[in-house]
């Protein structure tokens, strides 16, 4: 039963709906496991960010961090909503080009960009490269020289902040694989080197301190440290940044215990801090860029599973097993991430039992949800797990040779498959027999 402010509705049949489409029907039509997105929620998430910047009258770019869920249809939707795009690999850049995202709105990230990736980005004149390390500067300089080209860059810096999130999704701490360290001289060295090259335009700084943040204190502290450095570079070298990119990381609600700051409130705090810091060091307010991934895709998506085997360990636990698991949602196994779910075919029935939802991989750790209250469960019920829209499909894998599920978009009462379900031919397509 849906008990609180979920964006999904229950229809007259007592079934869960997304985008005006009955999810039990979708499970029948497309099979399970199935990722379903309510496209109006994706659009609304984009608009919340973009509108807030507009209302505040500041120059901004809101780039969707496509690692959260990269697929042509998804990139088409965010592009329609006026978003820019953050990509971190040749595959994500290729997907963006296939989706006809304007190249000047694409930003390339990565802590180990290959010569091939950088060449592709430079050949396509993408909007900017977020430079991460000295090796990358060598590669960029070489490509620009050989091709007689120019490029805009942001410098990714590591401000030395321990964000309040899981250690694996923390990125701005001192001991991080990402970016130039702000306090040990690396950032200064990189800045001077990039500025010396007339083919490179340094647009400004980038910092991303972590993901699934509920408060603005981390990014605000990062902004303060970035401005200390900008103050120094302004005084010493007359540098005025065009852009300050404060990254993504805006947290979402996975369970009732999660209470993230609203996106407009988060953006307002960031903007006001940047404006104050810029005024204090007497430079114009730079364009503010952000890169939400989870906040755009996360709560718009859910996963449908069919319930199969059940097992009771007397006095301990009641397990229900579903036809997916850590292959379509790695987050519980990787980060002990918590989720909520309901039976889509019994969405209005009261909860009468507590179950733990097991995936079907050959791993004891493949448990999608511990202690989920549900109505009486039977085999063939359809379980909907909420907020799987970010880092679900994008981290899906073939463990135990599972085929990846399909993705369906639902909007205004219509549904469309936007990523087809893999077949077992797909699963073995790269295998070659050993002669
Ligand atoms: C550089 C960068 N930008 C943006 C993001 C998107 O993060 P989120 O999906 O939490 O908004 C990430 C991931 O943490 C990242 O590393
Ligand atoms: N994949 C992670 C977040 C990492 C984001 C990229 N730096 C998650 O599922 O929460």
UniProtKB/TrEMBL annotation:
Keywords: Amino-acid biosynthesis, Decarboxylase, Lyase, Lysine biosynthesis, Pyridoxal phosphate. Pyridoxal 5'-phosphate binds at residues 249, 291-294, 391. It comes from the Bacteria. Substrate binds at residues 294, 331, 335, 363, 391. Residues 34-389 form the Orn/DAP/Arg decarboxylase 2 C-terminal domain. Its cofactor is pyridoxal 5'-phosphate. The keyword Amino-acid biosynthesis applies. It catalyses: meso-2,6-diaminopimelate + H(+) = L-lysine + CO2. The modification N6-(pyridoxal phosphate)lysine is found at residue 67. Pathway: Amino-acid biosynthesis; L-lysine biosynthesis via DAP pathway; L-lysine from DL-2,6-diaminopimelate: step 1/1. It is an enzyme of class 4 (lyase). The keyword Lyase applies. Homodimer. Belongs to the Orn/Lys/Arg decarboxylase class-II family. LysA subfamily. Specifically catalyzes the decarboxylation of meso-diaminopimelate (meso-DAP) to L-lysine. This is Diaminopimelate decarboxylase. It comes from Lentibacillus halophilus.
